[in-house]
Protein: Aspartate aminotransferase
Amino acid sequence: RSWWDHVTPAPKDPINAVTEAFLADPCPYKINLGVGAYRDDDGKPVVLQCVREAEGKIAATNFLESTCAAISSKLVEESAKLVYGEDSDVIKEGRFAGVQALSGTGACRLFAEFQRRFYPDSRIYMPDPTWSNHHNIWRDAQVPIRTFHYYHPDSKGLNFVALMDDVKNAPNGSFFLLHPCAHNPTGVDPSDEQWQEISSLFKVKNHFPFFDMAYQGFASGDLERDARAIRIFLDDGHLIGCAQSFAKNMALYGHRVGCLSLLCDDKIQAVAIKSQLQQIASTIYGSPPIHGMLAVSKILSDPDIKAIWLKEVKVYFSSFSFLFHSLFTSIFIITCIRTIGLMHLLIISTCYKDMATRVQRMRATLKEALEKLGSPLNWQPITNQVGMFCFSGLTPDEVDRLAKEFHVYMTYDGRISMAGVTTKNVDYLASAIHEVTA
Ligand code: PLP
Structure:
């Protein structure tokens, strides 16, 4: 008998399973729509200019321990400014406990552990659906999980009434996990007014909002705009928790840079909470790696590099994106050259390749292509939804047919990663989707 007879394979991660099936397919025109990482229009991973600039500057950094601790607190400080606002009282008064974390996953895991230690009888309420790993993270931290209504399959939008009911019916003082923008996997976010109502009800019910901010900048291309849900809660005087990831908005997946911050009543509380978070981290993984942290810290604290980053995630001209796909393209370009000059137009066109814009452009193109094919289904949600993902409403059978007959791979919940859609494959993808849904 072996020591390990009783160990059976763990269930496959749904996203890794898609990648495996994609890699095993020899078809030259296969498409991977499972991956949650940004790709350029050639389907290639991207290194942002701001990252290149930052890496150039940190190349000569002396990795002394004391330097690292100082830079790590710089990272935490700058990350907190990004979510809570440069001028917020929380930042001015130092009323938060923040620690560097192993990207968004690590930040969630730290918080789940913290929750179990200090609120051992509590549960976590998470949206249905949510990123599948949220369930694994809180399960492994032994925090009981409940779900709340979020997505309405018929409208392919938010089920706001049911959501509010669930918030109301949860016991007072419950922990809630919220996606502040670019909800994964649905791409459906509450409006500002709805966030306001949610925040007011949280106040009445004394619930704790924990925001998982994995995609700041991906919903609108504007980091401030994407933090609005959190600012609404902040204005209402909530104490908030927030997990931040720089994996997507700096395209730094492999470096695992993130931050966990918890708002506190005062500085004394902040010191106590920070020490507890550090202690939890030290027993799980010691300390996080430093290279990515140095790069992020440089991007956030060097005004010139930060400006490049903001530009890289910003949507330029998004409201005019349809023009690039219409008969009026050439007229439009000539008019632009006349009015703003060739140089400006070239700059704007370069910006056009930026992350959030490319994703938005692909949404519009995919929807148009499906409509042109005469699909009787309503594809409006493709452009209504925001962020990296599109919750298409495709059934598991249709997803299966897409893989087997058309070499198009996505998770069984019908989630399309828009980053995998390019100008070269969008028409083929539209006809494949049309075939399986017709
Ligand atoms: N939270 C959400 C909602 C996500 O979608 C993801 C990644 O897909 C994460 C957290 C984890 O991101 P990271 O790669 O930073 O760990």
Residues 65-84 form the longest helix (20 residues). The mean pLDDT is 89. The pocket of pyridoxal-5'-phosphate is lined by residues 36, 103-105, 131, 179, 184, 212, 214, 245, 247, 253, 258 (CB under 6 Å). Residues 272 and 397 are 52 Å apart (CA to CA).
